[in-house]
Amino acid sequence: MGLIIALNKGRIFKECLPLLAACDIAPDEDPDASRKLIFETRTGGHQIIIARSADVPTYVEHGVADIGITGKDTILEYGGAMGFYEMLDLGIGKCRMMTAGPVGVPEPAGVLRVATKFINITKDYYRQQERQVSLIKLSGAMEIAPLLNLSDTIVDIVDTGNTLVANGLEARATICDISTRLIVNRASMKTKFDEVNELIQQLEAVVAS
Length: 209
Known about the structure:
Layout: E1 4-8, H1 11-21, E2 38-40, E3 47-51, H2 56-61, E4 67-71, H3 72-77, E5 84-89, E6 95-102, E7 112-116, H4 119-128, E8 133-137, H5 144-147, E9 153-158, H6 162-166, E10 169-178, E11 180-185, H7 186-191, H8 193-208
């Protein structure tokens, strides 16, 4: 049996397909023309699962998928037992996890109100800073929170920074660099070592080229 590969839907999925195609792994149908979430592959007997970013580590940890491809932010935010190995940086989807706040407005000296959807990453960052914070979980656009006085600052992924500027915010501290990573289920690393290792080596060569 081939590998079961869980891919982060959206931008990462679209950027990963050419990398996998270079390794002779491609869905047997056009994903853009189908509402299916599980695809067979044209060769190799593999399967491709299209999943929400937060679900990719879950699928891999629980052995539903042998391999997952998702952002470093998703891996850091994941709160599971980490039943997988992070094996490869694919060098795509590059951005930064940063703090940001209103331009020219200093942070308050007391408890800092922080809006984010990355609760675990934010909590760890401010714990290291020894800063007392009140975390506000949002799922949509973070940039609106300071404008509505819901928070003093935000923690979010920053690519170009244009959205921050358009909303009167400025990027401040970089928490970590983000890119797309390949993770492997711990059991699959043993039971399907040859197939997993071959794919990793093929992807390494594609990324290097």
